[in-house]
Amino acid sequence: MRLKDRIAIVTGAGVGLGKAIALRYAAEGAKVVIAEINADAGCAAAREIHDAGGDAFFAPTDVAEEKEVRAMVEAALHRYGRIDILVNNAAILMFGKDARAHELSAEVWERTLLVNLRGHWLCSKYAIPQMLKQKRGCIINFASPTGLKGFENLTAYSVSKGGVTALTRAMAADYSRYGICVNAIVPGCMETPMNALMLSNDTMRQKRISTTPYGRLGKAEDVAGLAAFLASDDADYCVGGFYAVDGGTMAI
Fold first, then answer.
1. Which of 55, 66, 185, 186 keeps 20 to 30 A from 228, CA to CA?
2. pLDDT tens for each residue of 7-55
3. Could you give all domains of the chain from N- to C-terminal order, each with its CATH number?
4. Would you call 114 exposed, middle or buried from its count of C-beta atoms within 10 A (0-12, 13-18, 19+)?
5. Of 25, 80, 126, 157, which residue is the catalytic one?
6. Is 199 a residue whose pLDDT tops 80?
7. 3 state DSSP class of 14
């Protein structure tokens, strides 16, 4: 159990990648804070961990709202007394509303950046002071290929993920000397609720599969093992890295 008794906050942990990571962390011995905006999903994820013999609790959190993020971190500290791991996973993809720059509404632009970029920053802002006190911590951000190369009709999402790339590098440079390792996971196109609308279009689905050398879309469980490694002592010297889980998409 590589993460025995460590305290992990996982945002967006009620569904998809976040839930898979939360379950894996619990199986590795961590105590998990399910930071989730959807109460039903968050409670269900915490219950599943409890039913498997683990320790978790649901903290209702809109990562774009500073008061809610602060309250979530305070609740984690009140219950567990420390924070060892922060996984900034929560994100939105407003497929069908995201668009080319001149066609994009201010509402879609602002909401996407609030959740996907401000959310990563706010959760880090409130978790880092405790990690500095401990002189140790691990932060895993969720970047995207869209933030590294051009994708059509995904302006707001791409910009938000490009910001996560820059934030990861800045935080890695600022905090590694204090024992806080900051890295990013870069998933490819995954079979998750966030992508459900996009992948319901068969043409789009086949396009994503055809551009993945591995020949299939990713599953949430494909990410969990890497997230466990990056949170463990085995990854102690991994700082500022971007780790692709994309079936080879970025290789071509």
1. 66
2. 999 999 999 999 999 999 999 999 999 999 999 999 999 999 999 999 9
3. 7-190+219-244 (3.40.50.720)
4. middle
5. 157
6. no
7. coil
What is the helix, strand, coil percentage profile of the chain, to 5? 55, 15, 30
Q: Is 231 exposed, middle or buried (0-12, 13-18, 19+ CB in 10 A)?
A: buried
CA 6 from chain center: how many Å?
18
Give catalytic status of residue 157 as yes or no: yes
Pairing of strands 137-142, 55-60: unpaired
At residue 194 the predicted structure's pLDDT band, cuts being 50, 70 and 90, is confident
Please state, in angstroms and rounded to a whole number, the distance separating the CA atoms of residues 10 and 14.
9
CB 131 within 8 A of CB 7: no
Tokens in use for 250? Answer: 């970025």
| Eight-state DSSP code of residue 157 | H
Instruction: Give per-residue pLDDT as tens, 58-84.
Output: 999 999 999 999 999 999 999 999 999
pTM beyond 0.90: the answer is yes
